[in-house]
Amino acid sequence: MKTVNRLKNRRVVITGATSGIGRACAELLAEAGAELYITGRRADRLDAIQRDLAERYDAHVSTFDFDIRDREQCREFVDSLDQPVDILINNAGLAAGKDPVDKAEFDDWDRMIDTNVKGLLTLTRLLSPQMKNRNIGHILNIGSIAGHEAYAGGVVYCATKHAVHAITQATKKDLHGTNIRVSEVSPGLVETEFSNVRFKGDDEAADRVYQGMQPLTAMDIAEIVLFTLNRPAHVNIMDTVVLPVQQSASTMVDRSS
Question: Phi and psi for 116 in degrees, rounded to 5?
Answer without folding.
Answer: -70, -30
